Amino acid sequence: MAYSNATIWGAALAAVLLASTAQAKTLDVAAGPDAQERLQTALLDAKPGDVVSLGAGKFDFTDGLSLDVDNVTVAGAGQGKTILSFAGQKSAGEGLLVTSDGVTIRDLTMQDTKGDGVKSKGADRISFVALTVEWTGGPKETNGAYGVYPVASTNVLIDKVTVRGASDAGIYVGQSKNIIVRNSRAEFNVAGIEIENSTDADVHDNVATHNTGGILVFDLPGLPVMGGHSTRIYGNQVVDNDTANFAPKGNIVAAVPMGVGVMLMANRDVHVFDNDISGNQTSAVMLIAFSRSFDDKAYNPLPRDIVVRDNRLGRNGWLPSLPGGKMLAQAMGGSVPPVLWDGITSYPGIEGPAPRLYLKDGPVLNLNLAKPGAVETAKPSVTPSLGTPGLPERAAVVLPAGQDKPAS
Question: Where are the beta strands (DSSP E) in 213-354?
């Protein structure tokens, strides 16, 4: 019988995959003395397909950890059962840095890192599942900036993650593409969940509560990847975001007003729908232009192609943390409308049509600012809604086969 080249190569590939699977092993690491050295050694010795299994108990570290081997799973015995404590960490880096592809971090808790909790950089198919990152001393400026922090990564899954106490953003995805953030909880952070300079993100079925701001979608200038677009925010509970801003001065998020539910800045094609948004004293949804100076002529500082529709809005906007916010709320009968737009439709040196918006969930407060910060010349107006329907919504994010499995 004759065999085609395709058949021969297919059989060879299947044999290689079978051999690789057969060789995969579990590297067990228990809590106790020398946990730092034993775990880092396991991460260095791991081969593709291996599982680094951490037993129940508390692991104490004095330095950060790193993983640069593809297709490795780091798994604990469960959130709150396997605890990686970095309270004694001497360096200011992250707790765990991942720079390889096909990695899953799951079923464990990380505490009190000096820098970020767990970070992936330049990774493809990176998954954070059933993971807790927290700073046990509560909200403090000296806490690490980010809890879960994939940057410059592709095919990102964040599922059943909890982050508490980050001094910038609890769950942060930056300069990345093809992202799902779901079934997670962000509380007592400055920004609960932030999508920044990223493309194609679905943020759904999460709880963002007791942060300074609940869910943020930004695009910033001066970064290696800009032009963020195409984010869907839906099915979330964005409630009671009431923590005073504790970000270090100078950080972008240090300017986020306390009590914002969803904040959109300088990003494109963002759809906010089917969320429960209440208990946010400044605004349910805020749309603003980037207000700092920048040199990049390709950067567009305006929010555009934005849809806010069919959300369930409770009490919001009773005490806006904005210049003159208290007086504005009093003048409007005790609270400002739930959707706030700065009203900036053009920017010097930026060419193109005025931003397209469809803000169905009014009333909408249009501050009518001529430019960022021009509050003294503004003449705010209120409309039942703003814009017209018809802005197209993109399809759902789809992750590679095998990555997008529900967390057990």
Answer: 213-218, 229-234, 237-239, 260-265, 268-273, 276-278, 283-288, 304-309, 312-313, 339-341
More confident residue, 406 or 167: 167
Coil, strand or helix: which one is 33?
Answer: coil
Sketch out the chain's domains with CATH numbers: 116-387 (2.160.20)
What backbone phi and psi angles, to 5 degrees, belong to 9? Answer: -65, -35
Q: How many residues does the chain have?
A: 408
Q: Using one digit for the tens of pLDDT, what is the confidence trace for 146-156?
A: 999 999 999 99
How many CB atoms sit inside 10 A of residue 408's CB? 8
pTM for the predicted model, two decimal places: 0.93
Long-range contacts of 60-63 (CB under 8 A, 24+ apart): 60/35, 60/36, 60/85, 60/87, 60/88, 61/35, 61/36, 61/85, 61/86, 61/88, 61/89, 61/95, 62/36, 62/88, 62/89, 62/90, 63/36, 63/89, 63/90, 63/91
Instruction: Give SS3 for 12.
Output: helix
Euclidean distance between CA atoms 117 and 64, whole angstroms: 10
Cβ(321)–Cβ(256) below 8 Å = no
Cα(354)–Cα(345) distance, rounded to whole angstroms? 5
Q: Would you state the structure tokens that stand for residue 233, as one six-digit string?
A: 């925010």
pLDDT tens, 349-358?
777 778 899 9
State the greatest distance between any 2 C-alpha atoms of the chain, in Å, as a whole number. 88
